[in-house]
Amino acid sequence: MAEQSSDKRGASWLWYLLFILPFVATLWVPFYSSIEPQLGGVPFFYWYQFLWIFISAALTLIVYFATTPKK
């Protein structure tokens, strides 16, 4: 019984690693510091960062549902 609880806790901890993705993707500026490709006239530099807002929200939702115990 205690081993099962430990496994669940360990597995849920791994979900939090998804929060690293937005940091890596947005803090590595040379990766997206360019004008092309443009999306609707918006330079890549801006829409890439804006896209990560939605991706981060989706990741937060995934981690929330994966780590919240079911009642």
Provide structural commentary.
With 71 residues, the protein is mostly helical. Helices cover 70% and strands 0% of the residues. The chain has four helices and no strands. It has helices spanning 2-15, 20-27, 29-32, 44-67. α2 packs antiparallel against α4. It is elongated and about 45 Å long. The mean pLDDT is 86.
How is the topology of this model organized?
Blueprint: H1 2-15, H2 20-27, H3 29-32, H4 44-67
List keywords for this structure.
71 residues; single chain; mainly alpha; elongated
The main sheet comes to: none
Tally the beta strands.
0
| N-end to C-end Cα span | 19 Å
How do the SSEs run, as a string of H and E?
HHHH
Which secondary-structure class do the elements indicate?
mainly alpha
Q: Tally the helices.
A: 4
Radius of gyration: 17 Å
**Residue-averaged pLDDT, rounded?**
86
In short:
The protein has 71 residues and is mainly α. It is built from four helices and no strands.
